[in-house]
Every structure is written in C-alpha cells, then in structure tokens.
Amino acid sequence: MKKIKVAFITNHLDVMGISAVIMNYSKSINLKKYELTIIAGSPIASRYLNECNLYGIKIIELPSRHHESLKHYFYLYKALRTGKFDIIHVHGNSSIMAIELTIAKLAGVKNRIAHCHNSTCPNITVHRFLAPYFSKIYTKALSCGVLAGEWLFGKDNFEVLPNGFHTEKFKFSLDKRNSIRKKLQLEDKYVIGHIGRFNQQKNQTYLLRVFEETAKINKDVYLLLVGTGPDFEKVKSLIETHPHKNRIILYGESNEPNALYSAMDLFVLPSFHEGLPVVLLEAQISGLPCLVSDTVTREMDFGNISWASIEADPQIWADEILRIKDKVNIDRETYYEKNRKQILEYDISNNVKQLERIYQDFF
Questions:
Q1: SS (H, E, C) the chain
Q2: pTM higher than 0.90, yes or no?
C-alpha cells in the first residue's frame, strides 16, 4: 500500500512547546502508513535531529525565517514542490501561517492543515491584516485547545487535537523526588517550581517579584527555575541582584522534567497567554498543586489549580502560595490512577489515532 506523504511545517525546531508536540506526534504516528517529513527553519535542536534519525523521520532544515526570510520561503517552496506531499500540516499561532499555506498551494499540495498552538501572537497588526485571506487558504483547522481555536478560527470552526504526550512518564516518583532534592540540597524545603521557555510570554520576571514577597514571609521556601530561552540572561542578571538569590536555583535545560516535577511542592505558571500548556498538564499528572495566571485556558484543570491575575500585586500571589503550602494536601502517589480517565484524554496513544483519522478523512 502506498504511504500517505505528510509534511509538518514549523518556523524552527528549537527546544520549546510546539517542537515537543511535533516530535511527540512524529514519533507516535504509524510510519508504515505515513511517510513523515519535518520541514523547519534554523535552529533545530540536536536532540530532535537525533530523535528523527532514530525513528526514521526525514527532516529538512531551511534557512532561518527570522534572519533570511526570502531564502527560507524559497527553499520551503522547493521542498514542497519536489516532495509531492499529500498533506501539509502547518504549526503556528496566527494567520501569518497563510504564507506557508499559500506556498504549499502554489507547490500543488491540496490538503492543507493550519494548527494553532496559542491564544495570541506577537505580530497582531500583521495577523489582523492577513486574517480574511487566511480563512480561505487552509482546508482543515486544528487547535491545541478551545481558547486557541476560538482566537484564530472563530467559534466552532475548528477541531481540537490535544497536545498529546506519554502521560505515564510524569507519574510522581518518590525515589526521583528524594534523589533530586538531595542533589540540590532541598530535602527539608518547600520548593516552588517553574518549567518553561524563558521569554516575555512566560513572565519569569514577575515570578521573581512574587518569590521576593513569599521569601520575606517564609524562610523555608525555595524557587526552582527550569528551562532556557531568549530571556535567560536577563532572568539570570535579575537573580544576581535578588534579595533572596541564595534561595533561587536556576537549573537551565533538563532532559528529565518528570523527576523535577516530583521534586517540586508547587508549580507556578504566571504566563501572559497560553494555548494549552503541556507543562501544566505534566505538573498536574505529577500531583502538584498549581498556581496559574487567569489568562490561561481552564479546560485542562484537573481540580488542583488555583488562579490569580497577573495584573495583581505580587503580594496576592505570595499570599496564595503560602495558603496552598499550609492547606493543600494531595496524595501524589495515587494521583495518576485516581485521575486516569481524565489524564488519558491527553495521552499520545489516543491522540495520535485522532490525528490519523483526520488525515484519512482527506481521502
């Protein structure tokens, strides 16, 4: 049987949320039925190159869209023209995806998916200008969640495909908790954790202000920041002058987030906006109580999330953190099994079947 040729298209494949989602689906799709190619601008993380080699997924690296836009789009057209794909699946946050979708149409690709992963974008002016045209150039609309779908496609004009991943990997582990906490000398501390790309959207600078107010009141709270990104050096410099810098751990990038969730006591996500944040699902699966900005979609709340406004004084967040510390008690060792039905809605083994059904519907 002839394989269906699919191309995932994304701006770049650096270490970030969209990249992780693309790789999770790429590694889980039935490669006996589908011939999969990832087409991405530079940079491409070495870990993803290694995974593509391991799984037999073709990857095409384009020049940087940010630094060499014309070359990027020229080579995208060339790749799509020569690849003779049956389906292209474009991942992004806005109607600016119209550019990739148009290039695909010009290259002769009939089935064109626009997949939204966020509930806003940095280039609102360009997004609004392209929106009327964008709505005519895709043949299928997908989103990671309801909020992201309504932002880009309007009410009821899209299908939700959750950001699937291997949920069982994020079950709480007492052994991993003890190991990480011993390594970081946090055995008897209350650890406030955050995992995310260091950028303006994730709002780590606000989190540092929140921690300042929290640490003033309680000497046993520590902050564990995990990740990297364009604001990493900025956050690092703010920590160097922070009054409680000795209680902040800037961990950097990690290949074992599951162990780090187990080591935390509370997960905090003060983002300005999100589509459907995988880190929030991972944290909840680990049985962590979470404190999250009220701009984030509520559709994946398993019942252990508290909400606060990022417009609020940091003291409000600090008070809530200390309330959770004193009053919220979750049995983390039994959490996964007790919430299994809801958790499995986000498991890649189920979600990839939905994606394959979407692809089959084109034929």
A1: CCCEEEEEEEEEECCCHHHHHHHHHHHHCCCCCEEEEEEEEEEECHHHHHHHHHHCCEEEEECCCCCCHHHHHHHHHHHHHHHCCCEEEEEECCHHHHHHHHHHHHCCCCEEEEEECCCCCCCHHHHHHHHHHHHHHCCEEEECCHHHHHHHHCCCCCEECCCCECHHHHCCCHHHHHHHHHHCCCCCCEEEEEECCCCCCCCHHHHHHHHHHHHHHCCCEEEEEECCCCCHHHHHHHHHCCCCHHHEEEEECCCCHHHHHHHCCEEEECCCCCCCCHHHHHHHHCCCCEEEECCCCCCCCCCCEEEECCCCCHHHHHHHHHHHHHHCCCCHHHHHHHCHHHHHHHEHHHHHHHHHHHHHCCC
A2: no
